[in-house]
Each structure stands twice: as C-alpha cells, then as structure tokens.
C-alpha cells in the first residue's frame, strides 16, 4: 500500500482501485440513505438520498392554509374546501420531500438552498414545515392548476416562513415567485 496524505489506495486483482479512507472502513457501494425526521423532534438530521429527498414524515400532518374553495385528494394529500391540508405521511413509507429547492447531491452532502436554523420550539428547521406544504402543493399542481393559483401556494410558503420568524423569508419568497413557474402545473413521474 502506498500512503497519500489522509487517504490510501490499494490495487485489487481486477485492476480497479478501491478507495480507503484512513479514518473509516472501505467505502461500500453507494446505497440510498434516509434520515427520518424524528417525530419526537430530538434531532434535526437531514441526509440527501439518491432521489433528492432529505426529509420524510411518517405520520399525517395537518395544516390550516389560506387556500380555500378547492377540494383535492389523493394518496399523499387531502385539501379541504375550508383550507385545511393533510399531508398523508402514514401512507406507504411516508411522504418525502427535498426541503427548500434546488439542491444537488455531492458525495453524501446536499448542496444548494440552505435550510433554516433549528426552531427551538419544534426542534426542526424553520423551513421544515413551510417547505413541506409548498412541495406538496407544487408536486400535485398538475391536477388542480386551473383551480389553485401558484401565487396562493407561494404566499402560503411565505406566510409559514414569517410565522417561523425566518429572517430570509423575503428572499425565499422572491425565489419561488421567480422560479416556481418552471415547476408549477407539470406532471411528475410518481405523482398520482
């Protein structure tokens, strides 16, 4: 073996090089990693898996929104006429989303729009719930784009960020207003 700073390399029979970090065992083939947002909110870990999702809720979450006079339901969400929104985390393996977009995966790190700091009352990021609601609205917007305006979903995101006292709320709101039209009303694979 030849040492090279903190890393060392070892030749194997197939003439491929296997990478070994001096502080860790040999890296195994990449497997998707999911960190579930602990419902007791004792920790705020978020690791991006191959699909780009960094959060998962495993139980139903209900929010009172200001998106009124529209009903919609599928296996992942239910929007009632009074504006209440239920994200169905209890369905399948939970509802997953990518937090504040865009993000790319580099190694095991999510690089892109920063998530908010930890809210000491909820023990999750200040952008956690606003991004959940916003992503749900956008993910299924193909089905109700003629009944719900994109601005309503964006304003709900902004309202929730302000309720969290997120200092960059105006910047994040401007970003979704500028770039949201690229994603609103488009059918996504896996959406139903």
Describe this structure in words.
With 192 residues, the chain is an alpha+beta fold. It has two domains: 1-30, no CATH class; 31-182, no CATH class. Helices cover 21% and strands 23% of the residues. It has helices at residues 128-139, 141-144, 150-163, 169-179; strands at 2-4, 7-11, 17-21, 55-57, 61-64, 72-73, 77-79, 84-87, 95-97, 103-106, 109-112, 118-119, 124-125. A four-stranded antiparallel beta sheet has the order 5-8-7-6, with no helix packed on it. A three-stranded antiparallel beta sheet has the order 1-2-3, with no helix packed on it. A two-stranded antiparallel ribbon has the order 4-9. A hairpin with a 4-residue loop joins β7 and β8. α1 runs antiparallel to α3. The protein is globular, with a radius of gyration of 20 Å.
What are the salient characteristics of this protein?
192 residues, disordered N terminus, 3-stranded antiparallel β-sheet, 13 strands, 4 helices, 23% strand, alpha+beta, 4-stranded antiparallel β-sheet, 2 domains, single chain
């Amino acid at each position: 073996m030849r040492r090279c700073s903190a890393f060392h390399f070892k030749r194997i029979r197939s003439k491929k090089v296997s990478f070994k970090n001096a502080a860790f065992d040999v890296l195994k083939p990449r497997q998707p990693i999911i960190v579930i947002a602990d419902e007791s909110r004792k920790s705020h870990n978020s690791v991006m898996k191959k699909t780009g999702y960094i959060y998962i809720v495993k139980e139903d979450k209900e929010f009172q929104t200001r998106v009124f006079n529209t009903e919609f339901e599928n296996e992942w969400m239910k929007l009632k006429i009074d504006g209440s929104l239920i994200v169905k985390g209890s369905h399948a393996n939970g509802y997953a989303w990518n937090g504040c977009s865009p993000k790319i995966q580099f190694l095991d790190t999510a690089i892109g729009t920063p998530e908010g700091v930890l809210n000491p009352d909820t023990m999750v990021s200040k952008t956690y719930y606003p991004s959940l609601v916003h992503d749900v609205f956008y993910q299924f917007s193909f089905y109700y784009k003629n009944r719900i305006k994109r601005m309503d979903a964006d304003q709900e995101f902004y309202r929730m960020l302000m309720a969290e006292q997120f200092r960059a709320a105006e910047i994040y709101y401007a970003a979704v207003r500028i770039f949201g039209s690229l994603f609103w009303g488009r059918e996504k694979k896996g959406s139903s």
